[in-house]
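Ticket #4471: structure output looks truncated?

Reporter: J.K.
Steps to reproduce: submitted the chain below (206 residues) through the standard prediction queue, then opened the result file.
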Amino acid sequence: MKHGAKSLTDREIVAVLLGTGSMGQSVLELAGDLLEDGWTGLYRKSVDELLQVRGLGMAKVSLLVAAMEIGHRLSKQQVGGIIEGPEDAALLLGDMISLAQEEFRVILLNTKGRVLAIDTVFRGGLDSVEVFPREVFQRAVSRRAASVIVAHNHPSGDPTPSPEDRKLTRRLEEAGAIMGIGVLDHIIIGRSGHISLHQGQTTKLT
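Returned output as attached by the reporter:
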């Protein structure tokens, strides 16, 4: 409380949530085990997997899952920043790397390129998601967005665009031109990096 939460290490933050360890294991040791694969590894663990960890019961698992969901939702709703290129957009969407299913999101921007909102428009299966342009632009109109950047992930890890991805990009650009809402880019995210369909360039995510 004296120095603020920012002074805590990752392990100490998890330890605060857990409160106590288990028999023969301190809370810091338990937190260290949970973070063995980093925050992304912890985020990707299912409730069933967490319940298999010695020292974790339903109450502690519920706290962990809720805390991670808060962070996830905050990362999706970062507003106010200015997008100057695909790298900026990809940073806002970094959590999509760990998703087990495809999601399609839209970053809504004002006339100065400032982020108004980030919305998840569709969720799909392991390798596909059905996208309807009307849903994308309905959100843009309701938020008075001047332009949008759309993005989706490839759970396979390879961000290489498919012919369907390119076709969808053209459909969205055509619809946006009619409505006066620019589609600035379509970004595909995978574990190996992200690719901007407008720049045709793959960039490693760090």
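Triage note (M.O.): checked the attachment and the full token line is present. The longest strand covers residues 115-123.
Status: closed, working as intended.
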